[in-house]
Amino acid sequence: MKDLNLLVKNIERDLLINIVLSVKHGRITKSEGRKIAGEFLSMSFEDNNDFFEKLRDLSKFREVRKVYVKYAPVYFLEKDEIDLKKLRNFMKSNNFKGEGYGNR
Question: In this structure, what is the dihedral angle of CA atoms 51, 22, 16, 48, given to the nearest 10 degrees?
């Protein structure tokens, strides 16, 4: 899983590009762009999960939503893989044979 600081920096860069393009093409005003950027920059978060929850909440803005849709699926797939790997290792280490789960 990517380092949180690197992930935030990449998302910040992509969000800035989306905001600039939206202002340039007249989809939002400069003040709306500043508002979006300000809300993003004022976010505080503890970990990746918290960051993506807050980013999802900010995706009421089209520019943020485009970034969220780009990065969130990758993050959640990686997170699922890590969780599955932990579960597999737990099952192997405890000689889990699935007793009581259809093996009668």
Answer: 10
Q: Which residue has the higher pLDDT, 96 or 44?
A: 44
Q: Which domain holds residue 51?
A: 4-93
User: Is residue 13 one of the residues assigned to a domain?
Assistant: yes
Q: What is the pLDDT of residue 93?
A: 83
Total domains in the chain come to: 1
Domain assignment present for 102: no
Q: What is the pTM of this model?
A: 0.77
Alpha carbon separation from 29 to 46, 73, 79, 82 (Å, rounded):
31, 29, 36, 41
* Joined tokens for residue 8: 């935030």
39 within domain boundaries: yes
